[in-house]
Specification:
seven-stranded parallel β-sheet; alpha/beta; binds zinc ion; binds adenosine-5'-diphosphate; 7 domains; GIY-YIG endonuclease; 834 residues; Arc Repressor Mutant, subunit A; 26 helices
Length: 834
C-alpha cells in the first residue's frame, strides 16, 4: 500500500531473556507490511548482542526515549503465535509471578526457541563458488565450513565489524546461509509408497475380466491381487490406503508378484505424505456406543453445564465410563468444526487412552508429547493451527491430546478443554518457571477461547471438589462402574501384628502371599504398589548407624542393585558401594528400607515360576520402555507388575484380580498438608485396577496402623468423609482451598549469607503478611547441588486481598533483588506449590 511508505511503525517485542516487559524497536520502511504480531525478528539488545525476538504489537506511537533501534530482519513470513496464546502467556506471567519471556520459553517448541542468540548455518542448497562471494562473505563461508553454526557475535568477530546484520541479510538473500530457526522450511514431509489399482481396473467388472486372465496364466499373482483387494477394502465404502511394505508383510504377496501385477498395469504405485507420527485408522465410531441409563443422565447434565463457558467436574468412580463420555462430547464438538484439547497428566503413562481416542478419531487426533523429537513436535504445532499459507497445506488436528505443555499449542478455535485425572500432581510444573498448574491454566484457556472446560477424576483434588460443592464449578456424579463390574473388595492387613507373630516373610504378610498364590494359580494377574518416596533402599552401618549421604545434597544415597552403585536422586551423584563403614570401618553395613527393586527381587524368590515386571522411574527412562512393560503386562507375558505411582494411573487391564499396597504408612505420614489426600487418591486409584468383568477384584493394603480413619474411608469408598475431614483441617490451619500458598525459596552456596538474606527478606515481608508468613525455614532437603536452601511460605486470601498481597510481594522482591549484598542469592517463587 502506497500510504504505508510514509508511516513510521514501531514494534514492541518480547525478548528471550529473563527481563520484564516488552521492548520497542523501529520498523524499517522496507519491512512495513511484512511484519505482524506473532512473527519473529532479529534485534540488537545491549551493546553487541543480537537476539531473535517475538513481535507482540505494532503501532505508530513513537516511544518517549530518544534512541530507538531498528528491527534488523524478519524471520517468519507468517505469525507463529496468535493473540489467544499471548493472552494465556500474559495471564501466566502475572499469576505465577514470572516473566512473559519465561512463559514463551516453555511454550515454544525448541525449534522455534528464541533463547539463544540467532544462529547462522550454511544453506544446504548453497554451492560454493568463490567468484560470486565478497571477501567478507567468503570469510563467513569458510568459518561455517569448519564450525557449522555461528552466532552473530561470532560472525562479527570473524569479519571484524560490529554491524553484521546487513551482511547476513544479503547472504540469506543470496541463498548462502540461513537463520537456524527456520525449521518450517527445512522440514520436509515424509512420504511412503502406496499401492492402488490402476484407473483401468477400478471397476469390478473390468477387474473380474483381468482376474480371469490371471487365473489361467498366473495363479500366484491372482492370489496376491485378491489379498490386496481384501486388505484395502477398495470396493467398499471405507477403502484403506495400503503401503508397499505393509502389503509385503502378508504371506500371500511377494515382491515378485507385486511387481508382476504392476508390470501388467493392474496395480500401480503412488507416493503419499505421511505424518511422522503414528496414526491408527479410525475404526470405531462412538455412534455404536450404547450408554447405560446412568451414563445418559451424566451426559445430559454435562451438556447443560457445559453450555457457553461453563466449567464442570465429573466425579466418576474408576471404570464408570468417563472416557466414553468424553469421546461422545468430543465428537459433538468437532462435529461443529471446533477443536478439543484433551489434557492428560503424564502422556507416557497413558498409551491406552491415546489408542482409544485414535480408534475413534483416527487422523484427527494429534498427540503432543515431551518425548517426541523436534520434527514431530513442530509438525503437531503446525497442525494444531488452521492453515495459514500455501506452505502449510494440511488438515488441522481437531483433537489435541497431551500433557501439560499441550496448553501452549496455537489453537485458534477451541470448543472444549478436558482435564482428565484432574487431581494428578504432574499437572504442576515444578521447575523451571513458569511453575504453572495446567489444570488451573486450562480454565483460563477456556475463558480465552470462550469455551467450556470439563475436569474428570474418580478422586478429585480437594481444591476442585471444593470449587464444585461451593458452586463455582458444576458437579456431576457417576457412581457405578460400567457393566456388571463391582467395586473391588478392600482388606486391611495389620502387618505390625503379623510381625509380632513372626509371620512376615520380609515385606509380605501371609495374607498377601496367599492371595498372590491364588491369583497366579487361577491364571490371573497381580499389581503390587510400593510408594517409593522415602522408602528406597539405603545403606546403614549396624555398628555406628552411619548412613551414607550425598556430598552435594542433604539427602541419603539410594542403593541401585542392578548397577551396584549408590546414587543421589537430586543431583545424580553416584559412588560405589563401600565394603566397610566409611565412619567406623565396621564391615557390618546393611541394606535398609525397601524399594520396588527389592520387592521385585524378593518376589522372584518367593514365586520362582512367575514372571515379574517392574515399572518405576528407573525402568521407564527410554522412549518406549513404558509401552513395552504395559504391552507385556497386557498380553500376559508378565504375571506380577511391581511399581510406584506409575501403576496407579489410567491403566485398564482385563485380567488383574489382585492389587496389593505393600506399605500404606509411608505415604500417610509424609510431612505435607496434602499427604492424606494424596494417600487416599493413590490407594483408591490403584484399587481401581483390580477386578475383571464378572469377577470382583481384591485389594490388600498392608499397614502398621490399621485403625487409621483414612484406611477405613478407602475401604468404604468414602471420598466425602476424607473431603470433610481435610476441609476442616485446612480451614483450621489456613491451607488451600481456603488460602493460596506462595513459596519463596532462597538458595546460596554460602550458608551464612543465605541465613542473613532470608531474615532480611522475611523482615521486609512481615509487615505485608503478618501471621500469614511461615519461616524462614530449612526444607526437608536443605541442600541440593551444594546450594543451601531456606524457604518462606506465604499465605494469601483469595480474590482482591490475594491480588494485592501478590502485587506487594512482587514489589518487595524487586527491592530485595536490587540490594547489593544479596544480588547473588537465587530466588525462586512458586505460586500454588504442590
Ligand atoms: P473410566 O474412564 O471411568 O475409568 P472407561 O471409560 O475406561 O472408564 O470405561 C471402563 C470400561 O467400560 C472400558 O473398557 C469401556 O470401553 C467400557 N465402557 C464404558 N461405557 C461403555 C458403554 N456405554 N458401552 C460399552 N462399553 C463401555
Ligand atoms: Zn559404622
Ligand atoms: Zn546430590
Amino acid at each position: 500500500m502506497a500510504e504505508q511508505e510514509y508511516i513510521t511503525l514501531f514494534a514492541e517485542v518480547l525478548l528471550p531473556l529473563p527481563v520484564k516487559g516488552y521492548f520497542t524497536y523501529r520498523v524499517p520502511q522496507e519491512l512495513n507490511g511484512l511484519v505482524a504480531p506473532g512473527m519473529r525478528v532479529v534485534v540488537q539488545f545491549g551493546q553487541k548482542k543480537f537476539y531473535t525476538a517475538l513481535i507482540r504489537r505494532i503501532h505508530n506511537q513513537p516511544p518517549k526515549t530518544m534512541s530507538v533501534k531498528y528491527l534488523l530482519a524478519a524471520i517468519d513470513p507468517w505469525p507463529v503465535v496468535n493473540e489467544k496464546q499471548f493472552a494465556l502467556w500474559e495471564w501466566m506471567a502475572e499469576y505465577y509471578l514470572c516473566t512473559v519471556g519465561e512463559v514463551m520459553n516453555a511454550a515454544l517448541p525448541s525449534a522455534y526457541k528464541l533463547a539463544s542468540e540467532t544462529r547462522v548455518v550454511m544453506d544446504p542448497e548453497f554451492v560454493k563458488d568463490g567468484d560470486l562471494l565478497s571477501d567478507r562473505e567468503f570469510m563467513v563461508v569458510e568459518a561455517l565450513e569448519i564450525q557449522k553454526i555461528l552466532t552473530l557475535t561470532d560472525i562479527s568477530r570473524i569479519v571484524g565489524m560490529t554491524k553484521v546484520i546487513p551482511l547476513i541479510k544479503t547472504m540469506i538473500e543470496k541463498g548462502i546461509v540461513r537463520v537456524e530457526e527456520e525449521i518450517t522450511e527445512r522440514y520436509k514431509p515424509r512420504t511412503e509408497t502406496c499401492i492402488r489399482l490402476t484407473e483401468a481396473y477400478r471397476s469390478e467388472a473390468l477387474l473380474n475380466a483381468g482376474m480371469d486372465r490371471l487365473n489361467k496364466r498366473a495363479y500366484k499373482q491372482l492370489q496376491a491381487l485378491m489379498a490386496y483387494i481384501s486388505m484395502s477394502r477398495c470396493f467398499t465404502d471405507h477403502p484403506l490406503e495400503i503401503s508397499r511394505p505393509e502389503l509385503l508383510k502378508t504371506p500371500d504377496i511377494s515382491a515378485a508378484q507385486l511387481d508382476g501385477l504392476i508390470k501388467k498395469g493392474i496395480l500401480e504405485t503412488y507416493s503419499r505424505n505421511v505424518s511422522r507420527l503414528n496414526h491408527d485408522e479410525a475404526s470405531d465410531s462412538s455412534r455404536n456406543i450404547v450408554f447405560s441409563d446412568a451414563q445418559k443422565q451424566v451426559l445430559a447434565e454435562l451438556k447443560s453445564l457445559l453450555k457457553g463457558t461453563g466449567i464442570a467436574l465429573l466425579k466418576g468412580v474408576t471404570s464408570s465410563g468417563k472416557t466414553e463420555v468424553y469421546i461422545h462430547l468430543i465428537e459433538e464438538v468437532i462435529g461443529s468444526g471446533k477443536q478439543v484439547l484433551y489434557l492428560l497428566p503424564e502422556i507416557a503413562l497413558t498409551t491406552q487412552i491415546i489408542r482409544r481416542l485414535q480408534k475413534y478419531f483416527g487422523e484427527k487426533v494429534g498427540v503432543y508429547h515431551s518425548r517426541y523429537n523436534e520434527f514431530e513436535r513442530i509438525e503437531i504445532w503446525n497442525k494444531a493451527n488452521i492453515p495459514l499459507s500455501d506452505n502449510q497445506q494440511h488438515q488441522p488436528y481437531q483433537v489435541l491430546l497431551g500433557a501439560r505443555s499441550a496448553l501452549f499449542l496455537p489453537y485458534t478455535d477451541l470448543g472444549l478443554v478436558i482435564v482428565d485425572e484432574e487431581h494428578d500432581s504432574s499437572y504442576k510444573q515444578n521447575d523451571p518457571a513458569p511453575r504453572y498448574n495446567a489444570r488451573d491454566a486450562a480454565t483460563v484457556l477456556g475463558h480465552i477461547h470462550q469455551c467450556p472446560v470439563l475436569m474428570g477424576s474418580a478422586t478429585p483434588s480437594v481444591e476442585s471438589f471444593f470449587n464444585a460443592v461451593s458452586g463455582k464449578y458444576g458437579l456431576v456424579n457417576l457412581n457405578e462402574r460400567f457393566g456388571s463390574l463391582q467395586m473391588p473388595e478392600i482388606r486391611i492387613v495389620n502387618i505390625r501384628e503379623e510381625a509380632r507373630m513372626k509371620r512376615m516373610k520380609s515385606h509380605f504378610s501371609p495374607q498377601l502371599l496367599d492371595a498372590i498364590k491364588q491369583a497366579l494359580s487361577a491364571g490371573e494377574q497381580v499389581i503390587l504398589f510400593q510408594n517409593r518416596r522415602g522408602f528406597s533402599l539405603r545403606l546403614e552401618c549396624d555398628t555406628c548407624h552411619h548412613i551414607p549421604e550425598c556430598i552435594n545434597c542433604d539427602v541419603t544415597l539410594t542403593y541401585h542393585k542392578q548397577v551396584n552403585v549408590m546414587k543421589c536422586h537430586y543431583c545424580g551423584y553416584t559412588t560405589r558401594v563401600p565394603d566397610i563403614c566409611p565412619e567406623c570401618h565396621s564391615p557390618a553395613v546393611k541394606m535398609r528400607g525397601f524399594g520396588t527393586e527389592k520387592v521385585e527381587e524378593e518376589l522372584s524368590i518367593l514365586f520362582p515360576d512367575a514372571v515379574i515386571g517392574r515399572m518405576d522411574l528407573d525402568t521407564t527412562r527410554t522412549k518406549n520402555a513404558y509401552q513395552r512393560i504395559i504391552g507385556d503386562f497386557e498380553s500376559g507375558k508378565i504375571d506380577v507388575l511391581v511399581g510406584t505411582q506409575m501403576v496407579t494411573k489410567g491403566l485398564d487391564f482385563d485380567n488383574v484380580s489382585l492389587v496389593g499396597v505393600l506399605y500404606a504408612d509411608g505415604m500417610m505420614s509424609y510431612p505435607d498438608f496434602r499427604a492424606l489426600e494424596r494417600s487416599y487418591q493413590l490407594m483408591a486409584q490403584v484399587s481401581g485396577r483390580a477386578g475383571r468383568r464378572y469377577k470382583r477384584g481384591l485389594v490388600m493394603i498392608q499397614t502398621n496402623n490399621p485403625k487409621h480413619p483414612l484406611l477405613q474411608w478407602v475401604v468404604d469408598d468414602n471420598y466425602d468423609a476424607m473431603f470433610e475431614q481435610q476441609l476442616s483441617d485446612r480451614y483450621k490451619y489456613k491451607y488451600p482451598p481456603y488460602y493460596r500458598l506462595i513459596e519463596v525459596s532462597l538458595r546460596h552456596r554460602d550458608y551464612e549469607l543465605l541465613n542473613k538474606a532470608a531474615s532480611a527478606l522475611a523482615g521486609m515481608l512481615k509487615p505485608v503478611f503478618g501471621g500469614l508468613m511461615l519461616g524462614p525455614e530449612y526444607p526437608l532437603v536443605s541442600r541440593i547441588r551444594n546450594l543451601y536452601i531456606k524457604n518462606l511460605m506465604l499465605k494469601t486470601g483469595k480474590g482482591l486481598q490475594g491480588k494485592q498481597h501478590k502485587a506487594e510481594l512482587a514489589r518487595q522482591l524487586e527491592i530485595f533483588k536490587a540490594l547489593p549484598d544479596y544480588k547473588s542469592v537465587r530466588i525462586i517463587i512458586d505460586v500454588d506449590p504442590v
